# Entry
Amino acid sequence: MKIVIVSPDLYTYGAMVIGGVLKSAGFDVTLTKNPDDAAEAGADVILLSLYSTLHLLDERIRNFASAFKSGSAAPGDRAIYVGGPISAYPDIVLGELDVDAVIVGEGEESTVELLNNGISEDISGIAFRDNDEIIVTKPEPAKIERPMPLIPDDIGSQSIRGANTYIETHRGCIGACGFCQVPKFFGTKIRSRDIPEIIAEIEEFKRCGVRRIAISGGTSSLYQYGESGSVNTSAFIELLQAIAEVMGPRNVSVPDIRVDYVDEEVLHAIHDFTMGWVYYGIESGSNEMLKVMRKGVDLEANVYAIELAQQCGVKVGGSFIVGYPGETIDDYELTKSLIEDTFLDDVFVSIAEPIPGTHLSGLVLETDDSENPTFMAHTGEYKALKLTESEARCFDLTLHAQMCKAVPSILTGPLYNACLEDSRQQGGDVRVVTRLLQKYRGSDVQEKP
# Structure
């Protein structure tokens, strides 16, 4: 049986892990970023590894799925299964794509079972159609130990926020952010990999051409998070030091750390054993919005973590979300003031995207378009640009951040246009996702134990 894994546009870590599991199980498996390559490979089964809701509406992927099935020699001769983060909402996947089943949650074991035995209610963590009914079997956590990932020869040519690839040190997140699906997908209990296994994997990535590694797995400092409810600082530092010995400290980054899980020791280790940056999900300067977002921290905690990192010689990138349901002009102005006061080294601004299954998606479904900043027409200073309120806030905050960074950027015409185009693109994408959510509002899915 020939298996082709399609990971559109970039090689995700999850796709490489599944590839390694299947190779170890004896399957003939290849990995590609291009659906057209899969069509030419003579595959018996396609695994679509999808990480964005927008993939469901991508005509290239939709057309490929239909063409692959229609090109089979006989009914049932070919199969397409979908996995990845998008599997958190299987009813939408099965409604939008012509596929046979969805691998729900962590798919290492269920994918092998599915390929060996075909679709069955006896397999945990899959979803499929039974006549007009969608059946979902309950997913189970996969073993944290697994074979070496299937690493493509051209992995060194890709860039994900400056890194060639992410690697996973643990699974799970103890946070409850309303816009994030990680706790639902991987659970709220931290399951950490052993350092020797992580290092062996990194050495293989380096051998295959990877020059810079980013540590993933929720918030990176939760590695070996203890039963006592505290960060295992010594284990995290040992991990960073071991990775730095392989890659060199300036080729290691640790994105996505919560402000409530850093201290001076952690920050000094980030300074010494990585490229020297920390990325905080600050999200808003309004305590009221932080509560709505379920961040579990307040403005004081955000400011303290920023200042502590700066005192430790660590550069700080901050991410912010605008256009959240209920965000007022006053809330937004507090975010602008926070950026102005903290002299961040870099700023990332996103329009609130309602990923299906999150608390945010529920808020969006409860919010009429007339009160949702993603659909409300902006009537302020950018009225002539014909932006929505969310787009205007994204554009304005991005411009504001350029001038308030530790090293301000000169606002050139190309930079202005790039910020405007990004804001419009984000706004359009979020509207598409919102309409998809509304289309499947109240869909009926039967879960089997």
